[in-house]
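Continuing from the previous page...

OK, I double-checked the sequence for SCO family protein against my notes and this is the correct one:
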Amino acid sequence: MALLDRTDDPEQAPPKGAAPIRRLALVALMCLVLGGIGGVFAATATRPEPAAARFIPPRQQAYDFSLRNQDGRRTSLADGRGKVIAMTFIYATCRDLCPAEGSDIAQAMRMVGGRGVEAYVISVDPIGDTPQRVRDWLNRRAFPAGAGQYLIGTRDELRPVWIHYGIAPLQASRKEAEAAAAGADAFFTANPQYNQPQTQPFHYEVPPQPTTTPSGADDAYPDPADLAYRGRARHVAGWDFEHSAYVLLIDKHGTQRLGIPFEALEPRSLARDLRALLAEP
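Thanks. Re-ran it with the corrected sequence; updated C-alpha cells here:
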C-alpha cells in the first residue's frame, strides 16, 4: 500500500485556508526582516554628494578674438591652440566673487603642473581694468608661469566677445567704475598683505537671498535690465557691479567643450577636467 502524502490524508491535511495564511505570514515576516536591514543600511550609509553642475555648450569652434593682454601684447584665442584654455570673465578691482573664481582656476592649474593649460581672463570693466591693475590681479592669483592672460580693451573691442559668449558686463557708469577702482587701489595700499601671491583658496560664501518675493517675480517676462529681480546683489559693490561669468573649457583644437558656473567651480574637479582634455590627442 502506497504511503499517503500528508496533503492526501484528510486527517493530516491543514485546515482549509491555512496555507494562504501561512504564506501571507511568511511574506510579512520577510518584509519585516528586509525592512529592518534596509533601515539599518539607510541609517549607516553615506549619501553620495550630488554631481557638480555642468553645462555642455555647442561643440563648435570657440569664437576667436584679438585683444591686448596685461603686457600690451596682442593675443587671440587661436594663439592658445595646442593648449587647454580655461576662459572666464572678470574685473580686477572686484573683491569677492572674481578673486575666488580666479584663485580656483589658478590652483587647478598648479595641480596639473601648469603645462599645456592656460587661463584667458577677459575683462568686463573697460574703465577700471588698466594694465597695472590686471598685472597685479594675476600676481595675486599666483598662476603658473606663462599660464595666465588677462585680456583688456575698450568697450567697443570687448563688446563682440561679450555678445558671442553671452556675457553681461558691468552696468556701472564711468564715474562709478572709476570710484570703485580707486577704492580698491586704496584697499590694497592699506592692506599690503593682500597684494602678495595667494596660493591658498579664496573662500567666498554667497550671501543668503531674501525670503520675500522680488517685485518683478509676477511679470510675464522678466526685464533683463532690472537686475534687482534676481534678489540681493552678490557683489559687495551692488547691482551695478553684477556681471555674468562662468568658466568655459576649450580643448587643444579650439573647440568649446565644458561650461562651469561659479557656484560649481572647485579646484580639484576643475583639475580633473583639465587633465581629461589634456589626455586627448
